[in-house]
């Protein structure tokens, strides 16, 4: 860390900063610049937030040198993490596609979709049983009934089941039915939930908070890793910007950037990330081309009748087409789907 | 609601839309524009999200006319809601200031600050016992021990106690110690938590999500109201934008805008909203001048030693100064502090 | 257009709105909703901004139905516009790559790069002679000397020349040397410059303003089209968001969205759009996969010695690799590079 | 500046960086951290952008210590700059209010408004003659005819005249009629225009670019100052964020932050900054409370008939009320209006 002193800071203030730095077990070197004095701090104390140092009299700002996360970092683990999802693996050469409806609505609906997406090449079935909805007046999901439908769809097709979890109290219930837990964008910074899934052994898909920075996203992953669960899959799902032509701005550049910094697999959600059906297929191709390890997509029997999030859902037919086109792109970069 | 048809939509598609609209109990009027056909939908169905209609073949977009919230709206309740916090009232002529440290650290610390802020005119004491922290390696709060310290500080000073609540499972515990529950920015869309506090009878300070729109913020309030708790205080605390000179962008314009649309009281948090100590006092004056009903501020015994969020915390001395200056601004607009 | 009246609006206010609408030559239909009265306006008057109507007493808001642009729209011209750049064509099956240094520095430098990028398959050479720089103390470009070097590089290689133009007064000078004019992100809303290039016959690359919406971007294109120049190439180059891991957020979803709405070709600038060298190649592949008609890339002889914008520049060797990889992606979607 | 090396950087790469740093006349100190080597650069070279250093092999990032601007900085000039506008002064105890219509429409209109705002206490009259409009089909201003009307309104009232300038070629014409030149938000990074007004001797109101950071804003001011014109007035006018309840997000926190960093006066434009008439008066009070040196406001004879930007314009009556209320807030912080 580098501590930049104010131009007005005197020797007493510098001595005081040095004392505080040494008190946490680090060493210092004083640099006398042309306009500023700067104190270089030597030692790995990334658990102390840089803001701590800003409060000391005479300090202008503290600049961290190290990343705030460790376990998620490639510096700690160089090779790509591959995550087992039942008999499939996410994070290797094969790009894994997870597909299904936004919300589970009935046994018929979920079986129909499960069979359709399996035939088209999906490795897992997604479906919401507990739905976080912006309005208290909107449909909130079938809850345990929905989980039962999902489990039966797994029996029928062999597909692993992915569902969103909203609260630590639901972990036992949800885990008894499904194979992969999903943390939604609105819960990326629900740290008690991150801790709770960190203590269980199911793979976790962690969706990026819609206003999370890259560091905050990796720190949320670090929460899960640091509580003992190594099976974290990061998912870019669109960020909130001034753009209104799409519901969110799908930030594909974070995918290759994450792949440089972390060993964890990274997938992309073009359905929520755009909210526009016509954009789901091209953005799926784009996600693969930039290096995503997987996709998570909304597919519906009849998008028109979907209880929630219809405008971005694909039919089975358009999903089949998307899989074919995406497969061609995957091959062009030496991967498969 | 207005449903705009695509230029290519034919009579069959229009008939189909009309049928679907009538199926939910609304009436329609067809408008033949120069370039587009438009279907006006008559009836109050704000529980159906506009996205639902976008999925129907031939529809270009659906434009809602009504606000998505009801109970929070001034159309439902014209007069300002005043909320009792022990022997004080928030939302009337008097501007209520809530102050205290980011995190409770010891009995001495919290008593010292409680006495200081009480003397300077605060109506309640804030202090974090359960802290949501971006890094798993940061200090997470004293938990129940912190609640005990807060309760003793109330005994000593008579100040009402405000603390953040992170999970529905904590409600009984936290409610047994404190007077006002606070929902943090990272939990504004934790709908299970909103429901849970909606079922209890304590006043709730609802902080705006850092990327929440005005509608989403009011819908989060609507969650609490619709579960039976009328005592909701809205709090602007800074939004995430491209600006980096402050930690967040404190959006003061939402204060008078909320006051037009809702009867609920609105307060402002200039400490988290800026993250820069020198800006807390001017932004407090600004918040009052634009019409805020209160402030929530970080005050510390010795900001340099604070475990968390030091750079934005005031000393007792600077808090006293802030209260005097803010009081003058309050008077200039016909209010008091 | 739809005019929504306030719940408090009476008959006199409605009559007044109807009168004003008829005064501009449109017809009206009154819709009596459950909670609001709404006036549907029939007629194509997209030159009147919706804000105009908001000012009339009793009006809550005016909602436009038509897009604000016409000439740029696919409603006016269905087939893709192909633009001739000397002996090459942009906008067809072939994806055109424009490459070169951020700033022209010397004849040797520009010739070396021109030959390198031509060999690797570029269709045009870019190079800045007039550089818009954030700091007045930074290198501002070689000006006319730079244009001369570019023209000689064209003689040597046959590549068309693309350069940025900063002011209407420079049009004659710059046009006498180069083949394609580029409008930078900071000038997308410099309407006098848009008018000026609209009156000349050179193809224009219009970069998206870093905070321009899709509509504003197309309206900037409309400025050029409406002054008589049909040769407009739209370029996504990154928007300003809260993300700091990249210099801007490259919004690839606007590419397929633009392709739905406009007949104009769309290219992408992954160099400025990310500002991170390691991300240029993956984002180039992503741009092609989502449907871009071309790329504009920074390539340098020795990025380390570049006067400006070094961190995102490729060497000739990495550009060759990028072209090969991008070519494979292009083929996978039925195009070529 | 601090140069952080990659964990993989070897001695040869460090030597190479040191060589490059010394080549520009700076000195270095090597710091051996626990996980990284860091090179501290001593010497004031803020004309070299930090990105330059990022390109050198082995460098992870370069962190600047000094601000990129000089002349605008309080480090160079401690006391507040006061700027003469005819017989008035901006930047002292008195808060200067500039008011007038968005666009000049006729002699009668501008005289009526000039007299109204003068009586209510404005120090200058604003009015647009050359209007930058998002759509090519919108009214673009009366041009020189508008300037003549403005000059006659000055004769009639004695008010100084403020108008926007769009291009270097207009400087002689516009300067011959008006007293203060305004650079609009879309031209804040039109560096040729900044240079041109930097060479003239009229005071300049520089509006913040809608996506400009604090540093970029001050660097735009530095352009004007460094070309010889010391009379720069900075104006916050709203930034582009995800918020849609207002047209822009008026970022009041930049006002006290600028006042800490620069000696230049800072004013606020609540009319464009919100785009909502009901918010103009409260945000004017807020701007004064946070320390603005002035306001620039849209006032219209009859907002309903305004050619442009009606929804945010005040009538003379509401402007009088705003001035009274704002005056009370000004007094409460020891200033006057």
Automatic annotation (TrEMBL), chains A, B, C, D:
<keyword id="KW-0808">Transferase</keyword>
<dbReference type="GO" id="GO:0009073">
    <property type="term" value="P:aromatic amino acid family biosynthetic process"/>
</dbReference>
<dbReference type="Pfam" id="PF00793">
    <property type="entry name" value="DAHP_synth_1"/>
</dbReference>
<dbReference type="InterPro" id="IPR006268">
    <property type="entry name" value="DAHP_syn_2"/>
</dbReference>
<dbReference type="InterPro" id="IPR006218">
    <property type="entry name" value="DAHP1/KDSA"/>
</dbReference>
<dbReference type="InterPro" id="IPR013785">
    <property type="entry name" value="Aldolase_TIM"/>
</dbReference>
<dbReference type="Pfam" id="PF18152">
    <property type="entry name" value="DAHP_snth_FXD"/>
</dbReference>
<feature type="domain" description="DAHP synthetase I/KDSA">
    <location>
        <begin position="89"/>
        <end position="326"/>
    </location>
</feature>
<dbReference type="InterPro" id="IPR052899">
    <property type="entry name" value="Class-I_DAHP_synthase"/>
</dbReference>
<dbReference type="InterPro" id="IPR041071">
    <property type="entry name" value="DAHP_snth_FXD"/>
</dbReference>
<dbReference type="GO" id="GO:0016832">
    <property type="term" value="F:aldehyde-lyase activity"/>
</dbReference>
<protein>
    <submittedName>
        <fullName>Phospho-2-dehydro-3-deoxyheptonate aldolase</fullName>
    </submittedName>
</protein>
<feature type="domain" description="DAHP synthase ferredoxin-like">
    <location>
        <begin position="1"/>
        <end position="66"/>
    </location>
</feature>
<dbReference type="GO" id="GO:0016740">
    <property type="term" value="F:transferase activity"/>
</dbReference>
């Amino acid at each position: 860390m580098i501590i930049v002193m104010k131009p007005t800071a005197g020797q007493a203030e510098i001595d005081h900063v040095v004392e505080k730095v040494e008190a946490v077990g680090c060493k210092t070197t004083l640099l006398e610049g042309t306009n500023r004095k700067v104190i270089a701090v030597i030692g790995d104390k990334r658990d102390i937030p840089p803001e701590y140092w800003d409060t000391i009299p005479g300090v202008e700002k503290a600049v961290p040198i190290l990343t705030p996360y460790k376990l998620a970092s490639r510096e700690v683990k160089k090779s790509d993490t591959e995550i087992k999802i039942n008999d499939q693996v996410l994070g290797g050469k094969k790009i894994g596609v997870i597909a299904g409806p936004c919300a589970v609505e009935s046994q018929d609906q979920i079986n129909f979709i499960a069979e359709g997406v399996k035939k088209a090449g999906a490795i897992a079935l997604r479906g919401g049983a507990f739905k976080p909805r912006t309005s208290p007046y909107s449909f909130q999901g079938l809850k345990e009934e929905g989980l039962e439908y999902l489990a039966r769809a797994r029996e029928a097709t062999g597909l692993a089941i992915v569902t969103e979890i909203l609260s630590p109290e639901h972990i036992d219930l949800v885990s008894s039915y499904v194979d992969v837990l999903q943390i939604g964008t609105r819960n990326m910074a629900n740290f008690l939930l991150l801790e709770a899934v960190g203590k269980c052994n199911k793979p976790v898909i962690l969706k990026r908070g819609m206003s999370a920075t890259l560091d905050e996203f990796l720190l949320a992953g670090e929460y899960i890793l640091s509580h003992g669960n190594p099976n974290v899959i990061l998912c870019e799902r669109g960020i909130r910007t001034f753009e209104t032509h799409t519901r969110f701005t799908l930030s594909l550049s974070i995918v290759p950037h994450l792949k440089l910094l972390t060993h964890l697999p990274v997938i992309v959600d073009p359905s929520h990330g755009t909210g526009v059906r016509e954009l789901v297929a091209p953005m799926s191709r784009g996600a693969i081309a930039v290096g995503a390890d997987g996709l998570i997509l909304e597919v519906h029997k009849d998008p028109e009748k979907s209880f929630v999030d219809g405008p971005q859902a694909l039919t089975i037919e358009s999903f089949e087409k998307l899989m074919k086109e995406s497969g061609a792109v995957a091959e062009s970069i030496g991967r498969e789907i």
